[in-house]
Amino acid sequence: MDPIGLGSFLVIALQTPADALAAVSVEEMIRQRSCDSLQRWAENRPWDVADLCASRVRGILQAAADRDSFVEDAFREQAWFLIDCLTEAPAPEWLALTLEWDDDQLREVHELGRQLPGLDHQTLAGWQERAESLNALPLFEYRLSRLANRLFQEGHRSLADELAEQLLFVAEDVESGLTLAWSLHWLARVSWRRGDFEESQERFQRSRSLWQALDDDREACLVLQELSSLQLVTGDLTGALQSSQDALQEAHRLTDWDTLQRAVEIQASILQELGEPAAAYRALLSLDEVGQGRESEPETRARRELMRGTILSDLGQETLAEQALQRAAAAAAHPSAVNAAPELAWEVQLSLGLLLGDLGHTEAALSTLQTAEKGFLAGEDPRGAAWAWKNRGWVLQRAGRFEEAMEWFARATDYGKEHSLPFLEGWCALGQAECAVDLGELPESFGPWLQVAQERGRQLDDNHLRWRTSAAFAEGCLLRGDLEEALIHLRLAVKRLESLRQNLEVPTLMTHFLRHRADPYRRAASVAARLGSHQESFRYADLLCGRILAESRSRQESPVSFSKAVSQLRRQEKELVAKRRDPATDQGALDSELVTIRHALREALVRDELQAPRQFALRGLSVHSVDCSRLQERIGELPFETLIEYLVLDDKTLVYEVREDDFRVHTLDIGRTELKRLVARLREPIEKLRAGQIDLAHLGFDGQAARELYERLVGPLRERWGSRVAIVPDGPLWSVPFDALVTAGKPGPLEIRRPFSHLQPLQFLAEELVISIVPAAAVLAWPPSTPPVPPQTVPPSTARRNTIGYSSSHRQPTLPPLVPSTEASFSPPVLHFAPATRQDILGTAGQARVLHFFAHGFIDRDVPQNSHLLFRDEQGRPDPLRSWEIERLPLTADLTILSACHSGEGAYLPGEGLLGLTRSFLLAGSRRVVASLWAVEEESTLRLLELFQEALARGMEPGQALQRAKLELRRTMDPRGFSLAHPYFWAGWVLHTAG
Fold this sequence. Notes:
Shape: elongated
Number of helices: 43
Helix content: 55-70%
Low-confidence stretches: 1-119, 553-559, 614-624, 784-800, 817-831
Mean pLDDT: 76
Largest sheet: 6 strands, mixed
Strand order of the largest sheet: 9-8-10-14-17-18
Radius of gyration: 36 Å
């Protein structure tokens, strides 16, 4: 089909009766020509009739939309051109522009995909002059801008860019503000892609000024948003933040939803780069609230989920981040998003590939990044390809493929240097240096790279880049044997990390920072100890361990409240769990739905936490130190004589010994790998029992491993400790039952009729020490700041209750009630056990000084916030009390007893400590928590708790009472005929204290 004039087509369509219009074929209509009649028709018809006819023409064009030839596309484009005239132009003169063009001219305009390389300024200028003489210049400019966009969307980027370039010259010649504004906007993006950022910024600024002069505030705001993104890329963070704030303010004034969305997303990206991911995420959350009930375009959804995913990744929420990026990828693949922003799909792949690398999926990450690189190169965007090279380098480095990583870093570094991209150049130079360190090269080979990274970090004021650079400098100094210089750089690394921590508001980000690189806290502690700077070494060690208590000791005056979304998701989760018990239901579908609900619940919890963040700085505590002298003063007021803090390194373990009158640092010749091996040997029989591989009668005990752990961890230092000790564990030591370490003795002969009695002759550390576990030394240096429970939350009927017991079933523990004692810390005691629901606990737990939970316990090491105590609701259905709910309880308890399996276990994360149920109760305000290190045996546990309660009632403080109960229990014969001398029955119970 040959293209024809617009009028010859549309006049037939507009003169055909409505009931016959659909029956007339396109071929028949285009055979007839009558431009004059069309013009006369348009002059005599009201515009509402023209609108109606135009809509019918659109229907015909849609029916022909399956024709793929370029000629058909050009034909439809011509028809759309006239439709725009009919529906938008208030004067018939607008029709004259197209009616006066002959077929050859129309073909030339709409076949620019073929003709543009030969298009000259004179032709465009002639068309523009004709449009201006007909008072149709705005329409002409609008149509050509649409044509440029269409060429861009169809992959003809260079042709579209050339058209914009030609129109810029024409617009400047004829002084057309509209064409000049949009062509400058277009070409600013072109300069950005080509890496000419100075020219790009100048064009953005000129375009914005022109849009303002044309009173088009929306376009001016959009240009300002893109300008702020450019400033972010070029390292002008101050300018980027100011531009984004101006754009956001303007978007609010315009009340334009699409413009507002883009403004918020850009500001969030800038806040993220400034090291404030929590603030960035709150910006996105505010947008979610404003946009409730509004549907966003796929492109907008893709950009928002991309930003959400990158922020969640920085917040240490990798699972949620991956889900957000997968949603972004799906939205970016929508045809409308592909047409509007074809490069967006590759931007999503960049972030997704890097995250997959973080999660250890190396090959999937590399494949994703290769796809992104090809997409950027096909779209003539080498800048995006360079970012793919950078990300590929980080993925390979984390996989230990250092030489390959260096090759990709080198390519990206060269591009960043050539195109003045300080962020890209700095981080890739750092990557090359870190790989060289990992390969054991001497500093002279990677010093220049570190210099580049250092300069770019200073230029960008990027504390993340700066601490990594300082840590790499330190590693180079250590390779050279220069300890003093290494410590100088490590001090800077820790200082910058602590500065970052103060702005993060979310402690999990510290774990994210420390996951893939050498830990500067441990390095600094080790080097300072080697140089004899012992108190400095202790401060670094405690900064690493002290996150949990820094958080708990500075809680808000009121706990973080739950949003309606959390409550609703919680109900949905409960209903699905109940449905799964019905064998007639589709278990696969329910499981899939349950996973979706739980992911949504986690994201809602993150949202609640970030909208009401805790402040983590301890009162009066410098972010760089814990005051040892003040800590020593406090030890005299606490129920122990010595504080022992362990710091496990690769090849050795540092031990910090703090007494009221002394402070020392010891170095033990046992590193992380050997410690893990010994701990695994000690716990292996209990783990086999838990897994059902053996029964209780065949439970073994590796006395040799228990003795070796004592001799290597405790024995060299034991004589100085006294009888009451608080221990700050580190890493694998969180799994060690210190009470079960063997100090002397040999096993006796096996007695078949009295199982485990052969362990009676062994002497355990529990017989010599009262041991408490402390998450960090820093918390002991300051009095607690737990807020009082608001009076209105304590009903009169229970306000005098000192001890509350909660049971998960109708079977009650047979524990003796506490009796008043003048010496008891917890008098006047009242012990009340009753079958409790989760709601009972949430409503009454804040009323007691002693809490006792009798339930099943579960630890989720992958998602510690989901660890829980299992209770039941009013209908008897499972209703878990999860860690994230416990944290929000307004507790004032002096003691919490968790009679539950695994309640003292958790996931150890660098920078945070142990995450689990004990952490949650400490965060909620409980001063002490008794919990178990493994799945306990029920009958012996009940007897231990009886003995513990009796000792408390006699006035013993909890540590002494728990020791007394353990020693009595191990000398006891079980009614079933075996001895309870095995540490399995008593050594797993540990007292955690927060001071």
